[in-house]
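In this section we walk through a basic example: taking a raw amino acid sequence and producing a predicted 3D structure, encoded as discrete structure tokens. The instruction is simple. Fold the sequence below.
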Amino acid sequence: MKPSPRLALSLSVVSLALVTFAMPAPTVIALLSPPDGSVVNAASRPTFAFEATPGGRFRVEFSSTGSPFVPVLNSGRKTTPGDQHKPSMQEWREIVALGAATNTVYWRVIALHMTADEINAAPIASFTIAR
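The resulting token sequence is shown next.
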């Protein structure tokens, strides 16, 4: 007996949904800019660039400590698509202030839907602020 066209369509939609949910979560592969350990002038406003698997949405996070990394500032409630984030002037002032004690700021990028273990393993980089 041949399934009806409506049943065949329903089975196709279910199969497509299963394939979609089987896709792995996007991950961050590397932090590119500013490079780890670089010096960034406080008067400049760098673009934070990273390499990630395509198709994800990401949030850039900033901390005054590297271990443990405790995010204090981030790129906002909405995650940013793509592979870079240019903070607004206000965000940049807050990032610079975050490094007031040591002149060092740590940053990482996390993908939406990362597990806690993946977030703990996310690459972390630092930069020194030249005032």
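Looking at the output, two observations stand out. Residues 25-130 form a domain with the Immunoglobulin-like fold (CATH 2.60.40.10). Residues 27 and 52 are 6 Å apart (CA to CA). In the next section we compare this with other chains.
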